[in-house]
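Moderator note: this is an archived Q&A kept for reference. The question asked for a predicted structure of one protein chain; the sequence and the answer are reproduced below.
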Amino acid sequence: MVEPFKKLISLKGSKLPEGSKVPFDDAWRFILKVGVAAHKYGSTATRLESFLTSLAKGFGYHGEFKSTPVEIRFGLRETPDSQERVEVMATPPPDMDLDKLARLGDVLNNIKAGTLSINDADPRIDAIDQVPPPWGKFASMLGYLFVGFGLAPLFGAGWMDTLFASLFSILVYGLVLLSARIGGWAMNWMPLTTAMITGFLAMMVKHWVPSLNLVVVILSAIAIILPGFSISLGAGELVSKRVKSGMYNLKSGLITLIKQIAGAIIGVAIASVFVTATITAVHPQAPVDQKWMLLYFPLLLIGLAFAFQVSRRDLPWAVLISALAFLGVEAGSSIMNANLGNLLGTIIAVVVSNIWARKTGRPTSIVLIPAIVMLVSGTIGFRGLATMAIGDVVLGANQFLQMFIVALTILAGIFIGFIIIRPQPSL
């Protein structure tokens, strides 16, 4: 049962009499505005639908909502038996911005608490678009660098692998930024072009550093733009019988993954025309000593927070919850296997995130998403397709299949976590 709003304030700013409603047209207009904004900032379909339903109930109406990455269906009616007003709005694919999502959540919490009218909330919601990101271009570049630097050792890389993965991740950030400025076709082909240039340069370096682990270097450098979250989300939505949204996310994630694999292969092939080097590592480097994990792992978590624009206020909590999730993965893996580890890590992330959201009143997503992304399956899928591309079809197919197993394991962890600590309706 959704907790009703404590007080509702009308468009004129006066408290509504007990048992009255926000005027239907006002509620309808406001719900549309909130839905489009939350979708734009990266709220998942399930959480968005749940929150809009709660919002409609707080206004005194019955709402039915369906969200996909490219459209939202809004439905609102006075009573369960009355005629429904329906509108389907086309929306661009969401851009993950957790700071703006948190700001939107704060505005809605003020309405829910009765301290803000929906009339006064309108300009505040409009103003969120103009708020500069909490982390500028330099910090965002550091985010990419930290992710590349932190992931490579987790994949078993040596120091030389880690160095070049870090350098190439800066290049990836520059290419992503350039593609965003150009827009249109550039963004559509960005997964392929970034992987192609990274693959080309990595192969050129390998000519001079034969011990370089080519796949790990490329993978770590482009990991932050891999579509693992989209693939996991799509698999979860299909299991939840959200076929349309699930198929879209799964399809777009797989297409992006294939573009990246193709780009990396093309880049390596072009470089092979100019230099002689084997794809597999010759005398592979010794892995980075585990004692250095105290350095590179926190940087990985901070990098993810920078990349997803987690606010300064929420960053320590996002890092802490991601760290707890990783400890859960390690514990579960040591007890039984990696699948149990992913399950346990996800449960811990969901439970702690929901407790944090209940204590702070802020959206669960802003601390949960970085943790899930850290656990997500896109890197496994990349490795699988890359392995198949260099000739080991059986191993590659097994790795690619494991991607979906990881996705379903994470989904199960989310469901169990929500059962243990039921989430509040939030974005």
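Archived answer notes: The CA atoms of residues 189 and 259 lie 8 Å apart.
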